[in-house]
Amino acid sequence: MANEPQGATIEDYLLEERRFPPSEAFKAQTLAASPFLYDDADQDWQGFWAKQAGELLDWDSEWHTILEWDLPFAKWFVGGTLNACHNAVDRHVLAGRGDKVAYHWEGEPGDTRTITYSDLLVEVQRFANVLKGLGIVKGDRICIYMPMVPELPIAMLACARIGAPHSVVFGGFSPDSLIDRINDAECKVVITADGGYRRGAPSMLKPNVDMALASTPTIEHVVVVQRVDEPVEMVDGRDRWWHDLMEAAEPECPCEPMDSEDLLYLLYTSGTTAKPKGIMHTTGGYLTQVAFTHKYVFDLHPDTDVYWCAADIGWVTGHSYIVYGPLTNGATSVIYEGVPDAPARDRLWDIAERYGVTILYTAPTAIRTFRKWGTTEPAAHDLSKLRLLGSVGEPINPEAWMWYQEHIGGGRCPIVDTWWQTETGAIMISPLPGATTTKPGSATFPLPGIGAEVVDDAGNPVERGGGYLTLTRPWPSMLRGIYGDPERYRETYWSRFEGRYFAGDGCKVDDEGYLWLLGRVDDVMNVSGHRISTTEVESALVDHPAVAEAAVVGANDAVTGQAIMAYVIPRGTHTASTELGEEVRQHVATKLGPIARPKTVIFTDELPKTRSGKIMRRLLRDVAEGRALGDTTTLADPGVVEEIKRRASESPTED
Ligand code: WTA
């Protein structure tokens, strides 16, 4: 029986019975209390998005066509013109809200800056003039490689103001990554800093730029923010200090009217081995959906909320939910430069308490880390102002969800588990707080206006059970393509299932139609013909009280095709032992059934992760199968895999 293929695209083992209806208190004040959004969108999804575009944004001129759809190429709000910077900054000042705080910024060493919308307008106009002074015109691409300092959003907005698309490269990336991205986009200017603070010490950036620039012929100028005040080399004529240029710049710079479909930015997704893809986002549709989702998914009350998305602006989460969404909606946000354990493990809770944060948006990897650290740190701070919590980036294990709900949210905050991608530009699947009954670990339903369906190998919709997540119709913030490579765009996203966007994620639908993301389909394991998702086994492992975090992979096995290898980080005072390994294996078997029981449990202190915190299972497969490691350039800490290799060689295989 165990050896017979079961036929399901991805099988469904995890049963989760807990559910959390919205509280009366939350319902009483939420923006999404009644189902009117879904009803509106059901009746006419294009009209629904047009209504949002009209309500949420200022347009210089009206569009004549809501959507032109020539699969897989979409144009939204065709003929309309607007400027993203005007929408994010100017209009709030013009409406008399200039004194409102846009950002409470806090550096890792503890220095702070309070930036109002008026301050932003002053800085952004000056920097837009700096760019013009360096010869930048509408359409030129600008590379931004910076730490999390206020100059980063200012630089992005200045680019948007003059119509020069930005390409932000995460500050943790190497000179090689910079070279690929600069050359692919043929950027003319790099904006950077001498360095930023990380784990209590300066982490230098300018030297990386210097190395990259030997191989980037299109770069004419480098603008350098002085952040850490360490000596850096400045090349005469090419490199200029931000503060010198700003001092000399004219104070006023009008917004360039942009076509709704003009490129707002490029953001490169690394992929695993292939050349990074320059994901293209344009102006009108992108802003519409980020503003809509930021308002309704986070239930934003701009006059009273203090909103904090604790991601890095170098990722799409930061683009959409630190910069464009919150600013377009006139929100007050927190930005923090550094890591969560500098100087101590309570840094986030200390910040949340001091600024009175009401909405917190972070990633499962961070939540699992906090859970591993324990409850002392959050309990030592007053987090009573928090009223909504969000999660993004990976499937959230039900136990991590429960911990977040209880120990950070004080049991009173709804959690929005938001599924989306760099390519989708904005949140696609998520609860609407106050309207949706949530289940721990489920991203619940597609948002109003969004079409999502789970399909099987043949592309037929799956009513109940596991399969592939697809999107069935265009959406305003969708990627418009891969920069310079329309064929690769078609091939990567639109060729697997006819007429559908294939996201690359597994997903299951439960009896009530809730969606449960199951991780990347490349990671799905095949044990004796059973296709088992990594997510479900990992969640069953994390369900054991002694487990802080887990990653599983399918490794070649002569008998079962693949065998499940589990890499497990013990929690709190628990330590690695053969008995504990046996216990957690048994726990998985009890939760999911014997077929999902890991063959081997390897205890470790860390897991290999990308710099955005996603577990790199591909490298764990290499370790499990004794291969040389594949590409490790996107790994946050290369030492981790060596340690795991050593542990793996010491762990007995059990069965
Ligand atoms: C994963 C981040 C489960 C998924 C915004 C997706 C998630 C990839 C969730 C995109 C979630 C993101 N539940 N999985 N709530 N959110 N993912 O481009 O595999 O960095 O395809 O965008 O992250 O990652 P990206």
Describe this structure in words.
The protein has a domain at 524-650: GMP Synthetase, Chain A, domain 3. Helix 2 (36-43) packs across helix 3 (45-56), helix 4 (84-94) packs parallel to helix 11 (316-328) and helix 19 packs parallel to helix 20 (639-650). A hairpin with a 2-residue loop joins strand 1 and strand 2. The chain has a 7-stranded mixed beta sheet, sandwiched between helices. The protein has 20 helices and 29 strands. It is an alpha/beta fold and 655 residues long. Residues 269, 315-317, 392-395, 417-422, 443, 503-505, 517, 520, 612 line the site of 5'-O-[(S)-ethoxy(hydroxy)phosphoryl]adenosine.
- CATH H-level superfamily title of the domain at 524-650: ANL, C-terminal domain
How far apart the termini lie comes to 18 Å
The percent range for strand residues is 15-25%
Q: What's the β-strand tally?
A: 29
Strands across the major sheet, in which order? 12-11-8-6-7-14-15
Gross geometry: globular
What CATH first level of the domain at 524-650 would be assigned?
A: Alpha Beta
Binned, the helix content reads 25-40%
How would you classify the helix and strand content by structural class? alpha/beta
Low-pLDDT stretches are: 1-5
Whole-number mean pLDDT: 95
